[in-house]
Amino acid sequence: MALARESLRSVSGLEVGPLHRLSESSSVPELEFNQQYYVDQAQEQNQLIRASEFALSAARERVSGERGAYAPTFSFIAQRQDSDVGFDNLPIARTDNTYVGINLSIPIYRGGTNRAAVSEALSMQNIAEYELRARQLEARERVRAAYLQLEASRTQIEAARILVESTELAADAMQQGFALGTVTSVDVLNALRDQFRAERDLQRTRYDQIKYYLFLKRETGALTAEDMIEVGAWLEPATL
User: Which of 18, 48, 61, 79 has its Cβ near the most Cβ atoms within 10 Å?
Assistant: First the structure.
């Protein structure tokens, strides 16, 4: 237990206080939609996918900017100067100088610099497109896995509850048999071991169900602070 608490402290960076357990009355909400709905939501709202989309948009803008280096540039110039002070700040007749013009710059050749810049920008765009596609496929796979695991966990929890009840009855029967002298202490210990294992597996399955629930929300971009508060409300102080 001490090692587990230290590991938790290392991961969270926080001091570990009193541990809580999952209350018996807690229940993960039923899924409202089918698998494809959550897959589609992930493609639109997944944070990693959205970040990759922004990166691709920036890469395309860079390509456009580098290609713009080939195009002529125009600039409009307007200048006006009105003065009655000359050399050494001596007064002179008032002068009015006004200048209006257009500056045209036509790139001719820069030693391949523009072409190299465009080529590099296109390469970065291809990388961004590949990363976006990879993020989309990864999110689709994770959503489907979380959905299927969450659905299967409900059946697994029911099966685990039945096993707990069965092992409890077996342990009680073994203890009564030991009192009557029909079984040995080893038989009792084995029955208690099976009971504790069944209870442990039930709790592990319940915690896994919550994990899959949060995974699904995270991958679809729907995980909020309220969800974490809700999960926190499912916990209660552990009793020794």
Answer: 48
